[in-house]
Amino acid sequence: MPNYRIDVNLSARKLRLYDGDTLVRTYPVGIGTIATATPSGQLHIVNKVPNPGGPFGAYWLGLSKPHYGIHGTNDPSSIGKRVSHGCIRMHNRDVTELAKRVPVGTKVTLHNG
């Protein structure tokens, strides 16, 4: 059984999916603006919602810090930039792939550098 964990390097704007110590996949992400920065720390996925509506694209992966999540976007040009209100923004195809792999409870580490 896989032992997934997610590592988000905010300064590099990359989300890395690991199975144990093995890198499975790297995805580009958009992060919070300077005024609405994405928090650093150790979190975990608390829910998964397909097609959440609004600007959240194809999937919402809610994090243990209320009001924060990993989600898709209706604006793919925003990936790689500081544009969100603190959430981690992904291409819809990427967040859908991620959501199909990781279970609720998956550890998420958010850090700079």
TrEMBL record:
Keyword flag Transmembrane helix: no
Domain of life assignment: Bacteria
Keywords annotated in UniProt: Cell shape, Cell wall biogenesis/degradation, Glycosyltransferase, Hydrolase, Peptidoglycan synthesis, Transferase
Ranges where the L,D-TPase catalytic domain occurs: 4-111
Pathway the protein contributes to: Cell wall biogenesis; peptidoglycan biosynthesis
One annotated Gene Ontology cellular component of this protein: extracellular region
Active site: 71 (proton donor/acceptor), 87 (nucleophile)
GO molecular function, a single term: peptidoglycan L,D-transpeptidase activity
GO terms, biological process: cell wall organization; peptidoglycan-protein cross-linking; regulation of cell shape
Family from the record: Belongs to the YkuD family.
Protein name: L,D-transpeptidase
Originating organism: Cohnella pontilimi
